[in-house]
């Protein structure tokens, strides 16, 4: 097929020991750890999950120097377990949801917190606070055959060697299967979709020169430097 202009490059995430994974969409779950919900001033009771999105080309590989973004003075880290889908569907039952998963990775939902606060105050969308350029760093994916389906284990983020965020995957308010099932009732999911599953407490600002190391037990670490 020919196009009016050159087609944009396909966004991808590296796969441990395999060919790159093509990214279709990036869905992010908001406030999916109770302690983080509290630190953001919200009730952590098990209300239905909500979602926002990032563009596919916001993905950034590990060991990248990430430029400090424009239009913010409050640039925050949020460490997350990332789920990559090999299958899709609508209204996927919880008991079948894990069958759609290709693999897992460590990711960062980078956030222009001051823009998010302004958007919340004015009742406006979060797009420019969450879906900006290079806002979705992601370590290499590990296929399910190697990683299994992690439902417990440490998740943490260090900044310059000091722990900033720390939690356990078992603390997720909505687990991976429940999240996939619920999201598939809102939109049709497809192979290539990524789901960032939420962040534990301890989010905070980073500045130029900071080194971020993200970890989930059993997965390759994510390393990013703010440039």
Give the rounded overall mean pLDDT.
95
* Class per helix and strand makeup: alpha+beta
Percent of sequence in beta strands: 25-35%
Order of H and E elements: EEEHEEEEEHEEHHEEHEEHEEEE
Rg over CA atoms, rounded to whole Å, is 17 Å
Strand order of the largest sheet: 4-3-15-8-9-12
Instruction: State the end-to-end CA separation.
Output: 39 Å
User: What's the story with the biggest beta sheet?
Assistant: 6 strands, mixed
Strand tally is 18
Q: Give the overall shape, derived from the CA principal axes.
A: globular
Which consecutive residue ranges, at least 5 long each, have pLDDT under 50? none
The tally of helices reads: 6
Q: Which percent bin holds the helix content?
A: 10-25%
Q: How would you describe this structure to a colleague?
A:
With 227 residues, the protein is an alpha+beta fold. It has 6 helices and 18 strands. The strands form 5 sheets. It has a 6-stranded mixed beta sheet. A 5-stranded mixed beta sheet has the order 6-18-17-13-14, with no helix packed on it. A 3-stranded antiparallel beta sheet has the order 10-7-16. The radius of gyration is 17 Å and the shape is globular. The mean pLDDT is 95.
Quickly describe the structure.
By secondary structure, the chain is α+β, with helices and mostly antiparallel strands.
Name some characteristics of this structure.
single chain; alpha+beta; 5-stranded mixed beta sheet; 6 helices; 18 strands; globular
Helices and strands, with pairings:
Blueprint: E1 12-15, E2 18-22, E3 26-29, H1 34-39, E4 51-54, E5 59-61, E6 64-66, E7 75-77, E8 79-85, H2 94-97, E9 101-108, E10 111-112, H3 113-122, H4 127-130, E11 136-138, E12 142-143, H5 144-147, E13 154-159, E14 162-168, H6 176-184, E15 194-196, E16 204-205, E17 211-216, E18 222-226
Parallel strand pairs: 3-15, 5-11, 6-18
Antiparallel strand pairs: 1-2, 3-4, 7-10, 7-16, 8-9, 8-15, 9-12, 13-14, 13-17, 17-18
